[in-house]
Specification:
single chain, 4 strands, 31% helix
C-alpha cells in the first residue's frame, strides 16, 4: 500500500490481493533492505491478452532501473504464456519506460471523481 500511496493511486488492499490470487506467478517485486521498493504485475486473459499493471517504485528508489527490470519480467511472463497482445494503462511518468518496450498510446484514460447521483 505504501507504493500506491506514494504515487497517489487509488488501489485498495483487496485489489492487490485479487491480483495475487488470480495470477500469483505474474506478480513481481523488488526488495531492498527488507522493504518492498518496486512492483509490476501481469494478468493474463487466456492467450488473447495480458495486462501489465501496478508498475510502481518508491520515490526514493527511482532512477535505479527497478521498473525496467520488473517490466522485463512481466513481458517475459506474458511471452512464456504465449499471449497474443499485451496492454497497459499508464501515467505520464511511465510513458518513456513503456515506449522502450514498444508500447504506444491508443487513447486517453480519464479519472473522474465526484458525488454520486440517484435516479428519481
Amino acid at each position: 500500500m505504501r507504493l500506491k500511496e506514494s504515487a497517489g493511486w487509488n488501489q485498495t488492499a483487496q485489489d492487490w490481493e485479487r491480483l495475487l490470487e488470480l495470477e500469483p506467478e505474474g506478480c513481481f517485486g523488488m526488495e531492498r533492505d527488507g522493504v518492498l521498493v518496486a512492483t509490476a504485475t501481469a494478468l493474463t486473459y487466456g492467450q488473447d491478452l495480458a495486462w501489465i499493471g501496478m508498475v510502481l517504485t518508491l520515490p526514493e528508489h527511482r532512477g535505479h532501473g527497478y521498473a525496467g527490470r520488473l517490466m522485463e519480467r512481466a513481458m517475459e511472463f506474458a511471452e512464456r504464456r504465449g499471449v497474443a497482445r499485451v496492454g497497459l494503462d499508464a501515467t505520464d511518468m511511465g510513458f518513456e519506460l513503456y515506449r522502450r518496450f514498444g508500447f504506444a498510446p491508443v487513447s486517453v484514460v480519464e479519472r473522474w471523481k465526484g458525488r454520486g447521483w440517484t435516479v428519481p
